Amino acid sequence: MSTGTRGGAERGSVPLLAVAHGSADPRSAAAVAALFDRVRALRPGLDVRVSYLDHVSPSAEEALTALARGGAGEAVVLPALLTAAYHSKVDLPRVLDRAREESPWLRVHYAGTLGPHPLLVDAVERRLAEAGVRPGPDTALVLASAGSSDPEANATVGSLAARLAERGPWREVVPAFASAAAPGPGEAVAALRERGAARVAVASYLLAPGFFADRVRDRSAAAGASAVSEALGDAPELARVVLERYDAAVAARHARV
Question: What CA–CA distances, in Å, run from 122 to 27, 59, 140, 155, 234?
Fold first, then answer.
């Protein structure tokens, strides 16, 4: 058996536990479920499970306990988050520490967050195209994320905006944040219009519909945005990123053995 075949079999034997933020809005969990259904379709036979940090069951801790009680010896935990911020740096590591204490035989391998990743630029452009938005010299773009108190996470959104600008031809591309940072999406739209943009489109850099997606849409429209794209949801590019993060975590696990 070749090394590549053996590695593929071993990857498939390690369960993948995704941990999403969670929302009281049922549209959010439905979008997350659709994304991971797509992941299952891309990697048949992989045990893919979904859990949440808040609002929705199962919690990450409950899901890890279920894996341990079901006989799993290890698992890849993947933060289904578009930026690395408080949830991925603090909240989830605490959950993993508790899980290791309760089930010391369960080896947990922590994957990277979904973003940043070049494929996310493609996913953003896909959703914009679906909204009827095409880049052009008279059209400016706002890349709107949830926002974070973590400057590094917000800088990641700014870097993605710069990548979109390079791929243009947009008149201008700027980041905006639905909470915790400035400018807000409405402020960003208004500023671009004041600077002479004939049209301003807004790209929702959000995993799923819900509170923040509604805020981005409402405030952008009120400020005169010509279009607002949908959340990334089950975009094929996101499913590919999930599997890249999973495979990288498994490869790192082999390197440590």
Answer: 23, 31, 18, 19, 13
